[in-house]
């Protein structure tokens, strides 16, 4: 089936709780703007306008999205290969891209089960294709700020065993949740539901503060563009605020770092450029 046909069918899909919402091409969407940053094709003029605005002042900004994606895949490989994890709940999964969680995990363990969740209707359209790919990969539509609903979703419960360790992925999601929605309380509900031996992988926009004027300025600029666009969100938080989202879980070495410093392929040869300093990530393990 063609991509256009899939997109138009997204609005008709009711299976597995997929959204019946129509794709709104007049308002920028987080998933589609991110897709543009990753050089994808599933975006509209309104999304590309946000991208272009960021690019004018911060031409290196697409590197943030690429680093985030590369980190996510490194973490999935680590979890599957080294930590023996074979079930994943990937919240705010985004549009399929060059390499996705289920591909990275199932290449190493073909029995690995992946539940993607998102609230974007274009992601829902792709979900059909993902569902057709194999019976260990599923998509649920839902609001990640309502963890009780996500955790009790019948598809999540059917395919993930909450008596066994699992990996909860929250990559580049919580910086779209405003303080007024209580991001830490949201994460606490997820973390409390995780069985012992589970992992939480989380990345988040970072404002390094006055101690790093260049990084601070970049963070404030990009946050301003996002806030003033129809997309409306993308909050750069302090290291302490990001750490609090792990709800006290012990962090796997090397802790909360610039993404390129987390299990890098080799030693860093130069200084960390400003774009690397405005996104942090860590993997935590529930004892
Ligand atoms: C920046 S993308 C990150 C995609 C992927 N996790 C990654 O790291 O590559 C953020 C994703 O979160 C989704 N998202 C944002 N707010 C959400 C919400 N309240 N409920 C569900 N999904 C949400 C967006 O639709 C988008 O696909």
TrEMBL record:
Pfam families: Methyltransf_19. GO terms for biological process: methylation. It comes from the Bacteria. One of its GO terms (molecular function) is methyltransferase activity. Keywords: Methyltransferase, Transferase. InterPro entries: SAM-dependent_MTases_sf, SAM_dep_MeTrfase_SAV2177_type. This is S-adenosyl methyltransferase. It comes from Tamaricihabitans halophyticus.
């Amino acid at each position: 089936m063609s991509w256009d046909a899939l997109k138009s069918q997204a609005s008709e899909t009711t299976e597995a709780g997929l959204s019946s919402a129509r794709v709104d091409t007049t308002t920028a969407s987080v998933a589609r703007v991110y897709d543009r940053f990753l050089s994808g094709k599933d975006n509209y003029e309104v999304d590309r306008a946000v991208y272009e605005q960021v690019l004018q002042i911060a031409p290196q900004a697409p590197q943030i999205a690429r680093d985030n994606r590369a980190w996510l895949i490194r973490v999935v490989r680590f979890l599957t290969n080294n930590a023996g994890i074979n079930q994943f709940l990937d919240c705010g999964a985004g549009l399929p891209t060059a390499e996705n969680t289920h591909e990275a995990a199932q290449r190493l363990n073909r029995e690995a089960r992946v539940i993607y969740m998102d609230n974007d209707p274009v992601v829902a359209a792709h979900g059909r294709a993902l569902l057709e790919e194999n019976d260990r990969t599923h998509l649920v539509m839902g609001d990640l700020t309502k963890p009780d609903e996500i955790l009790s979703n019948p598809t999540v419960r059917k395919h993930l065993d909450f008596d066994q360790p699992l990996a909860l992925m929250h990559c580049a999601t919580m910086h779209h949740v405003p303080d007024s929605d209580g991001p830490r309380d949201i994460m606490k509900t997820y973390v409390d539901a995780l069985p012992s031996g589970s992992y939480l992988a989380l990345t988040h926009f970072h404002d390094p503060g006055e101690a790093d004027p260049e990084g601070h300025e970049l963070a404030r600029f990009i946050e301003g563009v996002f806030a003033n666009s129809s997309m409306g969100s993308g909050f750069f938080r302090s290291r302490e605020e990001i750490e609090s989202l792990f709800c006290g879980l012990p962090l796997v070495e090397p802790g909360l770092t610039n993404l390129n410093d987390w299990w890098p392929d080799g030693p860093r040869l130069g200084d960390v450029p400003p774009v690397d300093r405005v996104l942090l990530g860590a993997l935590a393990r529930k004892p």
